Amino acid sequence: MSIIFDKAQNSFILQAKNSTYIIKILKDKYLSHIYWGGKISEPVVEYIGNSSPRSSFNACQDEEGKFSLDNRPVEYSAYGNTDLRMPAYQIQLENGTRITELSYESHEMIQGKPKLPGLPAVYTEEGGEADTLFITLTDKLIGLKVILSYTVFHEYDAVIRSAKLINDGNTNLKIFRALSMSVDFDRSDYDLMSLSGSWARERHVVRRPLVNGTQSVESRRGASGHSENPFIALLSKDATESQGDVYGFSLIYSGNFLASAEVDQYKTTRVAMGINPFDFGWLLEKDEEFQTPEVVMVYSGRGLGEMSRTYHKLYRNRLARGKYRNAPRPVVINNWEATYFDFNEEKLKATAKEASQLGMELLVLDDGWFGKRNSDNCSLGDWYVNREKLPGGLKSLAAAVNEYGMSFGLWFEPEMVSPDSDLYRAHPDWCLHVPDRHRSLGRNQLILDLSRQDVQEVIIERISGILSDANIVYVKWDMNRNMSEIGSGLLPPDRQIETAHRYILGLYQVMDAITEKFPYILFESCSGGGGRFDPGILYYMPQNWTSDDTDGVERLKIQYGTSIVYPSSVMTAHVSAVPNHQTGRITSMEFRGNVAMAGNFGYELDVTKMMEEEKQAVKEQIQVYREIRELVQYGDFYRLLSPFEGNVTAWMYVSEDKKEAAVFFYRVLTTPNDALFRFKLAGIKEDAGYTVNGSEAVISGEQLMNYGLNIPPELGWGDFRSKLYRLRAE
Ligand code: DGJ
Description:
CATH architecture of the largest domain: Alpha-Beta Barrel
CATH class of the largest domain: Alpha Beta
Radius of gyration: 27 Å
Largest sheet: 10 strands, antiparallel
Number of helices: 12
Mean pLDDT: 97
CATH superfamily of the largest domain: Aldolase class I
Number of strands: 38
Helix content: 10-25%
Bound molecules: (2R,3S,4R,5S)-2-(hydroxymethyl)piperidine-3,4,5-triol
CATH topology of the largest domain: TIM Barrel
Oligomer: single chain
Strand content: 25-35%
C-alpha cells in the first residue's frame, strides 16, 4: 500500500513515486493539509507545518480563542467557519443557512481505483498499480456527508482527487459550489502557469508571478474552451524545464471550470479547482449524491519537463482507452481545406487515389456530406447523405476508397442543429433555449439539449445508423460554438441552473455509448480546432484536432503549449497548403512537414493539384514519419527551446530504452551574420554513443547533452527553416 494511516501521528501518509502527500486530523475533527512535495519516506509530522497566532480579527473554533482555521492549511475548505479564504464547497439549506461544518468521521483504503459514475476518470488496469483513500467527513446537524477521494499511483508522481457530496439528511440541499479539491501551500513565492489563447491561437504558455489576492483562469462558455485550458501549475521561481519545483493541476472535465490560486494576507496560497461555481447550482434531494470531476495533481522536483512527462504517460496509458490507445495512428488526408463544401464523389475518389500513391493511409471526408449542406448555414442534425454530391452513398464511397488501399473516415457535428434542418423544424424545443428569449446563433447553429435523455438517444441512434452502414474506421467529432441562452425545456425551474453541467454529463453518456458500440473506430475530437482540448474528452477519444490554425509558425507555439500537459499521441497536426488559410504565410513543405510530424501526422490540401516536386517531398516526408511515428506518438518528450522565448524552437522524442531519438529544430526568421548557436539535447543516455543522421562519428550522450548540436550550415539563409536529427545508439 502506498497509503497508510499513521495512528500515532493521526495522519494519512500518501507515498507516490518520488513524492509525498500528508493529511492530518486536527482536534479529532478537522482535516489539515500538512505537506505535498518531494519524498519524505518517514515523516515526523509534528515537525512539518507551521502556524503562529494571528491578530484578534481571526475568529476561533475553540473556547480558548487559540485555534483559527484561517491560519491553518486546510484539506477541503468549508464556508461558514473561521476559514475566510475561498471555500471548496458551499451549500444552502431549505431554511436559508449556508453554513456547514464537516468533521472527520471515518476512512477506507483500497487497492486500485473505482470508476467515477458518469464521469471520465483516470483508471487502473491492475489492482497493484495504485491505491485509493476515501475520507468521510460529516456535518451531523444537516446530514451532509462528503467523501474525499485520493488515488496514488506507484509509478507516477500524481495524486488524483475528487469529492462526493451526499445528502443523508431529511431536507433538500442546494449546492452552490462543489469544487473537486483545494490545497494550501505555506508560501506564495511561486509563478502561476496557464495555457491561454483563442481560436487559432490555443494554449499559449502564460507564466506570471503570484501576487496577493485571487488569480484564476476559468471558462463560462459551456465547454472548456479555446481561451483557457483546465490546467494551472505553480512553479518555484527557479523552475525551468529541467529543475525546480512544479505543481500541476489538471481537471478531467469538458465544461465550465475554475482554477484559482488565492494568496492571502499571510502569504499562503490556496489552489482550488473544479466545476465553475459561476452559474452553477445543484439540488441535492434526500439520499442523492453529487460526484465532482477529478483533478490530477502532479508534482515534479525536476522542473516542468518532468511534470509534462508524468501527465503524458498517465494520460496516454491510464486515461485514453480502447484499441488505439497504444496503436500507431494513421497518416490522414482530410479534404476540408482542399475543397471546403465543394466536392463530389469523383473529387474524393481522385483524392484517395493520389493520396494512396503518396503513402497516406486514411481519407477523412469532412463537413458537407449530409442534408443539403453547401455552406455552414444549414442541415446540422439531418444525418443522411447528400445524394447530389455522393450519388452512390457512403457505403460505396468507403468501398472505393478502400480499393485504393486507404481507410475511410467521416466528420460529424452531433451536438448541433441548424435552424434550417428537418430536425429543428420537427423539434424546435430540442435545443438549449430560454422561453420567450431570442435564440442566438453561433456559426448559424444552435446547440442540442444534451441534458435530455430523449435527445441523447436520438443522437446515438442516428450516428450509429451511419457508422453501421459503411466501412467507417475513423470519426472526427466536431463542435463549433459555445453556449448562450442556457436553459432546458424539460428541467423544472429550480433545476434550470443545472443545465450546463447536465449537458456535459449527457455528452459523456453519448460519447460513451457511441465509442463503446464502435470499438474499432478511431475517434478524434475537435471543436473549431482545440476548443475542447481537455482530459475529459480524452477518456472517450484518444486524439484531438489541435487547432484550426495549420500555419507552421503558429503551430510551434500551439503545439509547444499543448505539450505542457498533453502527449503527442493526442495532438493531430496536418500539413496544409500555402499561402496558409489562416495567416496567409508561405512556408516550405519541409518546414510544414517537420512541424506537423510532431503529432498525429496528416495532410489537409488538394493532393490532386500538387506539382511533381511537391509530391516527391510528401512521399519522402511520409516515409520518414512512418519510421519515427512510434517514437513521436509514444516516446518521452523533451522541450529544448521555447518559441515563446525567441526565434528558434526545438523539441525531441526519446524511446523508452533510450536507443533512439528524434530531434526537431525550427528557426522562424533568419538573421544575417548571426551569432554562433548550439543547443543541448536531453533525456538520452550519458554513457551511450549515438550516430546523428547516420553520421560516421559516434557522439556520446554526454557530449550531446553538455555541448549540444551546432546549427548546421545547410540550414542556409531564408526564413522558416527546420531540421530533423535522428539519433541511434551504437
Ligand atoms: C471546424 C474544424 O476545426 C475544421 O477542421 C473543420 O472540420 C470545420 N469545422 C468544418 O466545418
